[in-house]
Fold each of these.
Amino acid sequence: MTITTGSVVLFDYTLTDNDKEIIDSSREEGALAYLHGEGQIVKGLEKAMEGRKAGDSFKISVSPEEGYGLPDPSKIAVVTADQIEGGEELEEGMQLEASNEEGEQIVVVSKIEGDRITLDGNHPLAGMTLHFDVTIREVRTASAEEIEHGHVHGPGGHHH
């Protein structure tokens, strides 16, 4: 069976950056499952999966535009320490949950200069070319319930 919209796909992957440093991998925790055509993985990787089948292995480089996007300056804010609960205890690299007009969002403390704190709401991989090494383990037709719910059930997927 080939991968098309409505397929459940289980795959192993290793994701590296331009320096071949591993960013993420499913190889130790087991295959990742997704419902093809639902935008559950980055666009460039999903496009590369189309038409492939179980047993296929491939490598692909995904541009930032087809991955996590380019950094958006509007998602960066500079605030003072007194505007953040526990602001005096923050360290660069910490993740915080912030509220704005769009709802809850995870932001990273990207810089601390005195009492001025820079918060970045961009995805940590925004602006990066993503290098995937993929092996497709299983392809099957999604159940009616999986299509209705918009996600995979069972091993590698969601459990209700």
Amino acid sequence: MTKKILIVEDNELNMKLFFDILTYQKYDAEKSFDGHEAYQKIKENNYDLIILDLQLPKLDGFSLIEKLKKENIKLPPIIIVSACAMDSDKQKAKQHNINDYLTKPIDINNFIKTVKQKIGE
């Protein structure tokens, strides 16, 4: 069965890159360009993985995670992909049990490897 991945990214070029990589790898990738849209999609669908940018319009990445957790919505594994490589963001990610934090620009081979590890392939 094809694994379903939600990409939450507001930058068009990054979105295209992530989407193209994941569809080439035969994943069922869906796009979300802001935190509110992602929130609705996560509530209504079951994803095997979420690729999450932190700096998003309407609802940032950490606020999205916190909102979903408050509502006891089961989250799949999450990979944070962010241009901000600040230690405080990495610490905050760890507090949310997110250990995969990739910085932009991404290393494509490492991105694919991390996705496969998280999805259990």
